[in-house]
Structure formats: structure tokens, C-alpha cells
Specification:
Helices cover 43% and strands 19% of the residues. It is α/β, with parallel strands linked by helices. Strand 9, helix 9 and strand 10 (238-242) form a beta-alpha-beta unit. It starts with a helix and ends with a strand.
Length: 281
């Protein structure tokens, strides 16, 4: 189920979409269709994938017709194939036509994210590894993009800069090393906040381990080097693999013994799932 915060985020984005797409009005539809004329429409999958974003699509159409009758046939998280009917709804013809592109833009993007997340999960089936997203989301879409990741079966990493400490290479350089960075953070951050450190070699891994951090990120390492680092860490910290994590590589990485694999491509390189709207009466 989509939470209230995510739906509110979608409403803000809808206002932007309305302004850029409709402006002073849909001059084609409004001059062809009588205001009270009603129709039934369906959302239909045209490719294999996983659906995400139907509550947003419904919200869009209700902005144009608050009395729309909406029926989800295949709810968010469902796998679909070409020809599958995802939802059926009835409302004014004007609402169906004017709302169509806005609704599909949301639905196709989010379903594309869910589809890729699900493909990644299929690749690592049988392991205990979690697939994580990143902060590489479309600006303004973070709630929605991360919701779609969950609908695909993967998990969310930190939501923003405020909910988890992530000490990366630039932080390490400015602080004068991993130890100094962790010590400075611990003076000001509650113990309940997890600390993760990005490492790129064995020496950094050993330093992060000595600093007793919660999560050690193995960044842009070869699979063989990752496996060596996993043995050094020996379950004394959680381990995240990151950097150039493609669908072709993650199965091999999962078998190195890491706990998490973070994949920026889940949200930064989205291929929209092909979905169409058709009028059925």
C-alpha cells in the first residue's frame, strides 16, 4: 500500500505536471467532448514487467473527475504480460482524455523501476543478499522512486542525507582519514544513527573495521577483492557492495558473501514499462 507521504509527494508533482501540460486547458478535448459525457477505460500492459504507481494514476484521474469509479485488477507489485488489463475505470470522457498522459507518465516510470528491481532480485534468488537503491533518484520523485523499488521486491537504502551517516571519499580526505572522520561524527551524532564508511582497498577496510562502524561499503572493487575483504571483516560489520553493479554482475557479487548490493541504475537509468490506455465503450 502506498503511504500518505508518498501520495502527498505525488500530488505536488501532479501540480507541476498539470501546469506544464494543460496550462489554460485542453483545447482539443474541451472543444470536441461534451462535459457530462462518460466512458469506461482500461490500462493495459504492452510488455512484461511489474506494476507500480496505480494509486498515483487513480489520483490523477480523480483530479479531473472526483466521482470516477476505479477498479484495480492487478494491484501494485503484480507481474504482468502484454495484453493484461491492469485497471478499469469509468468517468467523464474529458477526464479520461485529459488525465491520460499524466497518469501514464507516472505509472510507466514507476513500473519500469519496479520491473528492473524485480529482475535484480531474480538474479540473486537463493542468496541472503538484499538489493538496495541509492539517492540517485529523479529530483522530487524520491518517495515515488523508492516506493517503486519496494514494489519490485528490493529494499531502500537511506532516504536522504539526514537519516544515516555515510562517510565517503571526500569526507575521508577532509577529515584526514577514516578514524578521524568516525571519531568526529560520533561526538555529535546519536548512537542510534548507523555509520557506514566507503572503502576502496584492504587498508581502508581494516581501518573502518577498527573504528567499529556499522556498515562497510566495498566500492568499485573486483569480485575477488570483495571476497578477500569479506573474509577480513568476518561478520564484524555489515557489508555493502557498490559501484558498477549491473544485472550481469550482481549474481557473482552476491556469492562473495556481502550483505547488500546497492544499484544506482534502479532509479537513475529507468526504462519505462510500456502501458496504454484504451476506451472500451
Amino acid at each position: 500500500m502506498m503511504d500518505e507521504k508518498t501520495l502527498r509527494s505525488a500530488e505536488v508533482l501532479f501540480d507541476l505536471a498539470y501546469a506544464e501540460d494543460i496550462g489554460d486547458g485542453d483545447i482539443t478535448t474541451n472543444n470536441l467532448i461534451n462535459p457530462g459525457e462518460a466512458r469506461t477505460a482500461q490500462l493495459v500492459a504492452k510488455a512484461e514487467g511489474v506494476i507500480a504507481g496505480l494509486p498515483v494514476a487513480e489520483m490523477v484521474f480523480r483530479k479531473f473527475d472526483k466521482n470516477i469509479v476505479w477498479k484495480e485488477i492487478l494491484p501494485d507489485g503484480s507481474k504482468v504480460k502484454p495484453g493484461d488489463i491492469i485497471a478499469e475505470f469509468k468517468g467523464t470522457y474529458r477526464a479520461l482524455l485529459t488525465g491520460e498522459r499524466k497518469a501514464l507518465n507516472f505509472l510507466q516510470r514507476l513500473s519500469g523501476i519496479a520491473t528492473y528491481a524485480n529482475r535484480c532480485m531474480e538474479e540473486i534468488k537463493g542468496t541472503n543478499v538484499e538489493i538496495l537503491d541509492t539517492r540517485k533518484t529523479l529530483p522530487g520523485y524520491r518517495h515515488l522512486d523508492k516506493y517503486a523499488v519496494r514494489m519490485g521486491g528490493a529494499s531502500n537504502h537511506r532516504f536522504g542525507l539526514y537519516d544515516m551517516v555515510m562517510i565517503k571519499d571526500n569526507h575521508i580526505q577532509i577529515a584526514g582519514g577514516i578514524t578521524a572522520a568516525v571519531e568526529a561524527i560520533r561526538k555529535n551524532v546519536p548512537k542510534s544513527i548507523k555509520i557506514e564508511v566507503e572503502t576502496t582497498n584492504i587498508e581502508q577496510v581494516k581501518e573502518a573495521l577498527a573504528a567499529d562502524v556499522d556498515i562497510i561499503m566495498l566500492d568499485n572493487m573486483s569480485s575477488s577483492l570483495m571476497k578477500e575483504c569479506v573474509e577480513i571483516i568476518d561478520r564484524r560489520a555489515k557489508i555493502e557492495a557498490s559501484g558498477n553493479m549491473t544485472i550481469k554482475r550482481i549474481q557473482k557479487v552476491a556469492h562473495t558473501g556481502v550483505n547488500y548490493i546497492s544499484i544506482g541504475a534502479l532509479t537513475h537509468s529507468v526504462k519505462a514499462l510500456d502501458i496504454s490506455q484504451r476506451i472500451v465503450d
